[in-house]
């Protein structure tokens, strides 16, 4: 059965470009409920840990530098079929390939600086939620 929670980050590019409000509005309009949310800046170590699965990829260093370059908004979102539906709402990794009406189509600037993160599986949604939030921070 599909899980009902996913983890998102509004990435440093979108925060710098004043898109927090616009992105949260698209998340609300998409039918997601906010379970947990915080505004923070990842250290390079923490960003490296979050993206550890990509360690061997050529863009890993660039990704870690980018994700620790400024504050982000992290949030746990709830909806039936949350992981898949949120991946649909954010659109393709490369905004050039993202469908009309998606968050990345509207707000992302490049394949690296692509405005938002969305978990890619229920297992990762749980791990990523635990990376940012304690039980006391979820409502
Ligand atoms: P996602 O699940 O759609 O976020 O995509 P991936 O899991 O494939 O990649 C994770 C993140 O790494 C992406 O969201 C981008 O921020 C970054 N990324 C992916 N491909 C590239 C690339 O070719 N160059 C750079 N600089 N960053 C990339």
List the helices and strands and how they pair.
Elements: E1 5-10, H1 12-16, H2 20-29, E2 33-40, H3 44-50, H4 60-67, E3 72-78, H5 82-90, H6 103-107, E4 116-118, H7 122-132
Antiparallel strand pairs: 1-3, 1-4, 2-3
Helix pairs in contact: 3-4
The structure holds guanosine-5'-diphosphate (GDP).
Can you characterise this structure?
The protein is of the alpha+beta class and 139 residues long. The protein has a single domain (5-137), classed as 2-Layer Sandwich (Alpha-Beta Plaits). Helices cover 40% and strands 17% of the residues. It is built from seven helices and four strands, in the order βααβααβααβα. It has helices spanning 12-16, 20-29, 44-50, 60-67, 82-90, 103-107, 122-132, and strands at 5-10, 33-40, 72-78, 116-118. It has a four-stranded antiparallel β-sheet with strand order 2-3-1-4. The longest helix has 11 residues, at 122-132. The protein is globular and about 35 Å long. The two termini are 22 Å apart. Guanosine-5'-diphosphate (GDP) is lined by residues 59, 62-63, 93, 111-112, 114, 117, 120.
Q: What's the short version?
A:
The protein has 139 residues and is α+β, with helices and mostly antiparallel strands.
Q: Which descriptors would you attach to this protein?
A:
139 residues; alpha+beta; Alpha-Beta Plaits; four-stranded antiparallel sheet; 4 strands; globular; binds guanosine-5'-diphosphate
Low-confidence stretches: none
**Global outline:** globular
Major sheet: arrangement of strands? 2-3-1-4
Oligomeric grouping of the chains? single chain
Q: Calculate the mean pLDDT score and round it.
A: 97
Bound molecules: guanosine-5'-diphosphate
Question: Number of DSSP strands?
Answer: 4
Largest sheet: 4 strands, antiparallel
